[in-house]
Amino acid sequence: MNCPYCNSSDARVIDSRPIESGHAIRRRRECIGCKKRFTSYERAERLTRIKVVKKDGSRVPFDVANILRGIQAACGKRPVPEDVKQRIADEVDEGIHRDFEHEVPSVEVGRRVAIALRNIDQVAYVRFASVYHNFQSVTEFQAEIIGLTEKPPTPPDHPSLFDDK
């Protein structure tokens, strides 16, 4: 690991701790040469590259950064902490890699994000759903909002007996 300040390759680890539910490690390091401290992250590289099958049939590499961008857009100016947004993206990422080997339909990725947002912030959920479902009219927004009021989100840490919408 090279120091980002002096480019020395001699650094010692001061502290290590697991992050992202144990799927990555955060290491605090100190450069032996310049004595400055910096942080590095280690993640295991997944061997299988999942492709997302878009609605038009095209295939693109699965990228959790795209999920996070969609979540951040839906949560724009909403009181949703960044760590919660990142947790949603990480949980969707883990679920996709657990449940699919080679390809995943884009609608499945969107469905999982929508379920998570529905339980976190209803406004962010409606924003995301409007893109995910490709709403074309105010009536479609109204129907989604009515659905939210008729079947409220599942409280956090509440076991689900059935698939959420």
Mind explaining what this structure looks like?
This protein is 41% helix and 20% strand. By secondary structure, it is an alpha+beta fold. The chain folds into 2 domains: 11-43; 51-150. The strands form 2 sheets. A 3-stranded antiparallel beta sheet has the order 1-2-3, with no helix packed on it. It has a 3-stranded mixed beta sheet with strand order 5-4-6. Helix 1 (64-74) packs across helix 4 and helix 3 (106-120) runs antiparallel to helix 4 (122-132). The chain is elongated.
Oligomer: single chain
Distance between the termini: 46 Å
| Helicity level | 40-55%
* Class of secondary structure makeup: alpha+beta
Shape: elongated
Count the E strands: 6
Q: Tell me the radius of gyration.
A: 20 Å
> Strand-residue fraction?
15-25%
Low-confidence stretches: none
Number of helices: 5
H/E element sequence: EEEEEHHEHHH
